[in-house]
């Protein structure tokens, strides 16, 4: 298969709105394409998506393949597999990226299975480098980097022998850059080759609550762990977040203990965040928690145990009882600001 | 009317109890170093199948696993819980299979069972967390899939269709599909039943004949030898009619390049006095560098 020099992104849309993770991936694809001297392409399927297609291009897409069909309005596996597969076969990109969302992780494996190519799940980083298999040197291939084994190891996976190299990528880990409305990319409309027999899934009902918790967009996050102990004490976390204008985060242990609801969970199985300031209160700093917050610009750790691992990644450490420290923090802030 | 169900299960190392020498130098897992358990979400898939069997008498629950001989343990546990037939897909030539090669072998084994209505599996295994094998197997079988199912709501045996609730970000979907279809299950909607004591007694000595050409001795396990049991079988590459090239390392496009243990990066931390003076000074610095406003 002769390969065109493109990095392709599958653009996910939900109810006609492009998913944030897809825009993050376009930005990452742009960066990888820069290193490879390649172009960025994208696939967007659904119904009535002209405006969203233009918006996607403004993040740096050179060619967007737009597949419009009423029956593709909502994602279902078999028709989307056909549509995306056909475009990949026709375009022969060297890399294809999907968001590691329910949709991306439903679709990506089917494409990989169909094309008999590799797919690495839930990557947290992508890099370009060389790799040798026996005597054969593969130059400028995709390093697909992901946590494995419950977050205890970080594995670098490669799949250079068969193209495209494919990965699903975690939401929130790639930086989004400012869009440029004047970016010159073209929209290529593609007619899907679909039969009625491909539409095997009937969606009876779809319920999506808009996430009221906006951890990903928050510049300041105040998180509580099991060290907060009670719901009453958790009010302290809420109050500090409120006065600083931040969002409330939590460790899984705090969520499991019912101190706060799951959408607040930060970490490997929660949300990945990179705020300007992350304040960890009564959180030990397990590998899985750090996986979701270690990239924060500044980290303050408040913990009664001076040996808690969280201190090893913190910029400011306060050893003591959070029940005493947080009220002082609030008081000090109110006095200064 | 009974249904014919296939459940895919996996024996996994318990990743919550990781020890230092869990990884071998070539990047593969040293399973011996970790306790082996029934992959948690696969237990929910099995429970879903057994629930269907309770509702539709005559349903046959076939459980398949691919793995080395000790993986027979998860098959026995499946029998104890109520499975009708189990098979261990095991062959040295499956070694180092990635998700693609695994799904190919599973597809061959499912086709050997044949005439199935639904295939159930856990959403993902805790050793890899990839969630890929289910969809990859469905694609190879050329059938539809419903992933992340929390619960089956309804089965229509006349129309041969299933309605299920699946979890999506921030909500759920209720979807319907005709047979054959593959479902992957999360750990939300069922309570896996414990093994039945009576079934444990009747299957305690269940074992299967091992064709010794398929394994070298070091790969053998005491439990695998003995007389053949009809509802516990061992299938090698030939038994499932798989093409050797598609299995194991040669059928695996992904390679592990590097493995790193997660280490703490110790930054330059500033310890703050836990009194009003220390905290006020920190707040002052954070305001000065515009971290907080
Ligand atoms: C596969 C897998 C995925 C996981 N995913 C996540 C995830 O996404 N996010 C996540 O957070 N966890 C996750 N975990 C769980 C993780 O391993 C830890 O169990 C969890 O993060 C611990 O939460 P914690 O820090 O609140 O609790 P602990 O580890 O119990 O720490 C509590 C801390 O509070 C301190 N403390 C107690 N009292 C006080 C006080 N009065 N004042 C100040 N400090 C006090 C203690 O010194 C201690 O350090 C996952 C685990 C697994 C196996």
Can you tell me about this structure?
The complex is a heterodimer of chains A (337) and B (293). Chain A is of the alpha/beta class and 337 residues long. Chain A folds into two domains: 6-198, Rossmann fold (3-Layer(aba) Sandwich); 220-336, TPP-binding domain (Rossmann fold, 3-Layer(aba) Sandwich), CATH 3.40.50.1220. Chain A has helices spanning 20-36, 50-57, 77-91, 102-115, 231-244, 252-256, 287-290, 322-336; strands at residues 6-11, 13-14, 17-18, 39-46, 63-68, 95-99, 119-123, 125-133, 136-148, 153-158, 165-169, 186-189, 201-208, 220-224, 247-250, 277-281, 298-303, 316-319. In chain A, helix 5 runs parallel beside helix 8 (322-336). Chain A is globular and about 65 Å long. The termini of chain A are far apart. With 293 residues, chain B is of the alpha/beta class. Chain B has a single domain (4-251), classed as HUPs (Rossmann fold, 3-Layer(aba) Sandwich). Chain B has six helices and 13 strands. In chain B, the strands form two sheets. A nine-stranded mixed sheet of chain B has the order 9-8-7-10-6-1-4-5-11, with helices on both faces. In chain B, strands 2-3 form a two-stranded antiparallel sheet. In chain B, helix 2 links the parallel strand 4 and strand 5 (85-89). Chain B starts with a strand and ends in a 5-residue tail after the last helix. Chains A and B meet through helix 3, helix 4, strand 7, strand 9 and strand 10 of A and helix 3, helix 4, strand 7, strand 8 and strand 9 of B. The structure holds flavin-adenine dinucleotide. The site of flavin-adenine dinucleotide has 29 residues of chain A, from helix 6, helix 7, strand 17 and helix 8.
């Amino acid at each position: 298969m002769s390969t065109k020099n493109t990095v392709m992104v599958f653009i996910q849309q939900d109810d006609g709105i492009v998913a944030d993770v897809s825009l993050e991936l376009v930005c990452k694809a742009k960066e990888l394409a820069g290193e490879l001297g390649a172009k960025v392409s994208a696939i967007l399927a659904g119904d009535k998506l002209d405006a969203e297609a233009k918006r996607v291009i403004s993040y740096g897409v050179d060619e967007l393949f737009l597949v419009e069909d009423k029956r593709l309005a909502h994602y279902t596996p078999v028709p989307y597999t056909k549509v995306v597969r056909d475009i990949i076969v026709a375009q022969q990109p060297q890399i294809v990226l999907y968001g590691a969302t329910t949709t991306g992780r439903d679709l990506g494996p089917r494409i990989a299975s169909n094309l008999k190519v590799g797919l690495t799940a839930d990557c947290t980083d992508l890099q370009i480098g060389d790799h040798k298999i026996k005597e054969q040197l593969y130059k400028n291939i995709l390093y697909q980097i992901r946590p494995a084994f419950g977050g205890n190891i970080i594995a670098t996976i490669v799949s250079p022998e068969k193209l495209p190299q494919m990965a699903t990528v975690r939401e929130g880990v790639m930086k989004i850059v400012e869009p440029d409305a004047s970016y010159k990319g073209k929209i290529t409309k593609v007619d899907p080759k679909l039969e009625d027999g491909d539409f095997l899934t009937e969606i009876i009902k779809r319920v999506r609550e808009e996430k009221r918790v906006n951890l990903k967009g928050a510049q300041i996050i105040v998180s509580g762990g099991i060290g907060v102990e009670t719901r009453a004490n958790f009010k302290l976390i809420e109050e500090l977040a409120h006065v600083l204008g931040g969002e409330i985060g939590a460790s899984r242990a705090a969520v499991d203990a019912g101190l706060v609801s799951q959408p607040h969970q930060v970490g490997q199985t929660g949300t990945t965040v990179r705020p300007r300031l992350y304040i960890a209160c009564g959180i030990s700093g397990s590998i899985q928690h750090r996986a979701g917050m270690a990239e924060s610009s500044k980290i303050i750790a408040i913990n009664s145990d001076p040996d808690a691992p969280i201190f090893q990644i913190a910029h400011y450490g306060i050893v003591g009882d959070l029940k005493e420290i947080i009220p002082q923090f609030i008081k000090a802030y109110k006095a200064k600001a | 009317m009974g249904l014919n169900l296939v459940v895919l299960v996996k024996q996994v190392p318990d990743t919550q109890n990781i020890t230092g020498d869990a990884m071998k130098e070539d990047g593969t897992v040293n399973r011996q170093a970790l306790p082996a358990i029934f992959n948690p979400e696969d237990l929910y898939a099995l429970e879903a199948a057994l629930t269907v069997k309770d509702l539709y008498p005559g349903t046959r629950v076939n459980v398949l696993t691919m793995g080395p001989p000790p993986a027979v343990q998860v098959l026995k546990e499946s029998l104890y819980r109520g499975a009708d037939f189990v098979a261990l897909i095991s062959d040295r030539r499956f070694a180092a299979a990635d998700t693609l090669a695994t799904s190919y072998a599973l597809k061959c084994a499912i086709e050997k069972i044949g005439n199935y209505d639904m295939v159930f599996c856990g959403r993902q295994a805790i050793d890899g967390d990839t969630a890929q094998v289910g969809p990859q197997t469905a694609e190879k079988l050329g059938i539809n899939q419903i992933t992340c199912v929390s619960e089956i709501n309804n089965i229509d045996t006349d129309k041969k269709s299933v309605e299920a609730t699946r979890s999506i970000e921030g909500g759920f979907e209720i979807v319907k599909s005709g047979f054959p279809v593959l479902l992957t299950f999360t750990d939300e909607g069922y309570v896996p039943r414990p093994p039945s004591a009576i079934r444990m007694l009747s299957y305690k000595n269940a074992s299967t004949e091992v064709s010794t050409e398929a394994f070298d001795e070091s790969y053998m396990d005491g439990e695998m030898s003995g007389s053949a049991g009809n509802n516990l079988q061992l299938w090698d590459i030939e038994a499932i009619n798989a093409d050797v090239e598609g299995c194991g390392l040669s059928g695996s496009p992904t390679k592990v390049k590097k493995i790193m243990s997660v280490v703490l990066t110790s930054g330059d931390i500033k310890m703050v006095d836990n009194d009003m003076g220390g905290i006020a000074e920190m707040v002052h610095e954070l305001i000065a560098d515009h971290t907080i406003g």
